[in-house]
Amino acid sequence: MNKTNVKQILKKRFGFDSFNPGQEETIQALQSGKNVLSILPTGAGKSLIYQIYSYLINKPIVIVSPLLSLMNDQVERIRYLGSSNVVAINSEHDWKERKSILSNLEHYRYIFISPEMLNQKEINQSLAKLNIGLFVVDEAHCISKWGIDFRPDYLSLKSNLKKLGNPQTLMLTATASKKVQDDIIKKIGIDNCSRIIESVNRPNIFLAVQKTETEMDKQSNLIYLLTKLKGPGIIYFSSKKMANLMSDMINLKTKLKSAPYHADLSNSDRFKIQHQFMDNELDVVCATNAFGMGIDKSDIKFVIHYHLPKDLESYVQEIGRAGRNGQPSIAILMYSDGDEQIALNLLESSFPTERDYENYNKHKFNYLDEQTKRLLDFYYQHGYSESQIKQIFKENHSLKVKDLYKLVDYINYVGCRRKFIQANFDENFDMHDDDCCDFQHDQIDLTPYEYFITQPTNEFSDWKSIINQLF
């Protein structure tokens, strides 16, 4: 199909006159028969790529998605655009519902699925009967970042692709260094891969680091910032307890409306908070990194990290949720001496302990948390010995520590912060000015980022506005 017809689909089906950077190039690479790794900025409309491509090939598309909330959100958007032939295969379905879906797969244009569901034999065999036109891995950096020690089923994508007949593959993400790109392609095991890479630079996001001496100073400083930055905004924590505490403090000491968001909340509570944030019924969400993927809110004014994220790439991914409307926004990373120890402790706790191995080998599974058991199940069932598993985790631990200290280097960097980030993604940057970052600023001028306290809107229920934000 020629370029004119692709533009006609863009206009007729989705109501847009032009593509965002990287979208059309990715579609053209797919049309040429290549597998594609497409790295486009947060909010660039990555899902539009496979939706348009579906009209070019008229075959079912399988999309691997990492989070239930993200999956459901994508399904609802596609339905809003007029496609009812979309389904998500996930843990929300009981056995009877899943059976019904699997027996009618040929009727769906878009099939969303988690890597864990894809790894189930019955589901994989049902998908293999289809003539899959495109296999999409959304948030493809998860293959590299989560596969080894968190979501091991991502490591089975390579073998599952073969079982599905090696369909054409599209990998989508907002951030991936050259090292991570290579790792994604290696782990998924595809050849003839084209890379479409747009810059990670978001020039409308001011970059800042605020250092404090004590935890109390940090809390006080955050409250002060929130008297100036009046939302909507996201504050990231690595501690669920601290997210709860600071959300309560924000409600008590400011005029802002805040709520915590993390894994201890029920699915219904998390869903409610997402909607309240989208509807401007909340000014601030105090969240762990579980919040953000699939939140397509264009007017987020600030993203603050109270605790350190895992690495620089995670940081860039998370701050990219600010300023999608192109308006001035700000990303502030708060730091007290020793904060990296909190991150190191969390890193240590993500790997199995000697006691875990002992309990597993003695079949004392009730002494293992679900995540650890699933992780060890994967490696033992794939024929790895205990010593081999430990070596894999040791090497991965070393890499993650190195990545964390790259973030600490960013915090302590004396120079243009944007230049530091761009260099990490093999990009050049030499256009530093006063609107870039806090380098050569004695004090941050928060005036450009002040915003009125949010008023409730029907933004989330108005799906047209959400589609406009997405694309």
From TrEMBL:
Record flagged with keyword Transferase: no
Domain of life: Bacteria
Annotated keywords: ATP-binding, DNA-binding, Helicase, Hydrolase, Nucleotide-binding
Gene Ontology cellular component annotations, sorted alphabetically: bacterial nucleoid; cytoplasm; replisome
PROSITE patterns: DEAH_ATP_HELICASE, HELICASE_ATP_BIND_1, HELICASE_CTER
Domain annotation Helicase C-terminal: ranges: 221-376
GO biological process: DNA recombination; DNA repair
Molecular function (Gene Ontology), one example: four-way junction helicase activity
Domain Helicase ATP-binding per the UniProt entry, residue ranges: 27-194
Nucleotide-binding recorded as keyword: yes
Alphabetical list of NCBIfam families matching this protein: recQ_fam
PANTHER family: ATP-DEPENDENT DNA HELICASE RECS-RELATED, DNA HELICASE RECQ FAMILY MEMBER
Protein's recorded name: ATP-dependent DNA helicase RecQ
Organism: Fructilactobacillus sanfranciscensis
